[in-house]
Amino acid sequence: MGIFGRYYRAGSSEQIHAEILHQESQLTLHSQNGEILQNLALGDCTLSAPIGRMPYRIEFPNGDCVECEDHASIEAIFQPKHHLRLVHYWERSRHFALLALLMLPLVTLLYIKVGLPILAKELSPRIPKEVLLTLDEQALKQMENYFKESKLDENQRSLLDRAWQRLPENQRYTLLSKNSPAMGANAFALPGGHILVTDDLVTALNNENEILAVLAHEAGHVEQHHGLRNVIQSLGTVALLTVIVGDISALAETVLVSGPVLFQQLSYSRDLEREADQFSINQLQQLQVPSSCLGAGLNHLMASHGFADVTDVVVEDAKLTPTEKTKDISNQEGEATPKEVSPEAASPEALSETSPEETTGENKDDNKEPGWKERLKKQLGLDEEIDFSEVFNYMQTHPATEERIEAAGGTDCPAPAVK
Q: In this protein, which residues make up the domain named DUF7092 (predicted)?
């Protein structure tokens, strides 16, 4: 019994039903009316790679080809390599297709959470210094509109310079002092070793040791190539998701590519911040400076950006009962002392959904529109309260300040002895 297929002449879409005959190393094709379409050695034919259940395609030297859906017969003639046959079997198997579909999210997650960080950590130190300096120049040029010349007075400049001179191996870095009202008290490091410090940061910190701790933290970002690791991690994530989804629209790109990159990047950044904190702590210990100076610096930076002193908030909050917390919140708002409330009503979630009028029993609008949490619950058809605390915690680029202060050993930072 012969093998049948569809024959196509070069440059033509006309379909000719043909019979394929194989004798030893010779391949012959006949049309239904007996015309010999091809008669040549098997080695002169080219067999396409199998793709799932799609027909095999045999191409001939003159450009003609024949397609055949009888996989078993074609494989018996051409005897493809074992690994190709195995792959072809996997592609045709529904069980393997289902298994691959189930494994894809797991493999993708492992690649993003484990593979890419390892790749970024190994690759980043191999980038030439010249490339890093070029990146720094471009970054500084793009940000030049955000910075002005430093306005530090002589004492503040002297404080910053003394801290810089104490930083180990400071010749590896370049210190830039700028005034930036838009950025406020801040410091950041670029991949090529530039460390930029704003005037407000120097003003916000209490003494030379706190400035030294922050400089050491930024030096940690440089030494451990955190900037490059972030870039490599982001590009690797985008590349993987683009391969998975293929040619995607702008909307799909935003949802499927930018979204996962953002969430992954936020978590990754927190790990890098912890590494930089530990680098700073190690440097301070080497200089016999209390590691708590890093905690003090972080605390004062938070206060300069409008947040309450972290240490005071933690200590005072621990002393209050749920009822006292509710009273304290109302008193801060300038309201009268509220009536007693249950511990459940005084929970952070309940307080976040309660207006000052509701807290004091003076709800002025019984027809008030439901909050965004209630609307989302209704849209999702949920009966239980949604706890967004873990989501918000995950979306922070830095670890919680309380956690970082605790790791540094507190906020006690004595000024260095005057020589």
A: 3-79
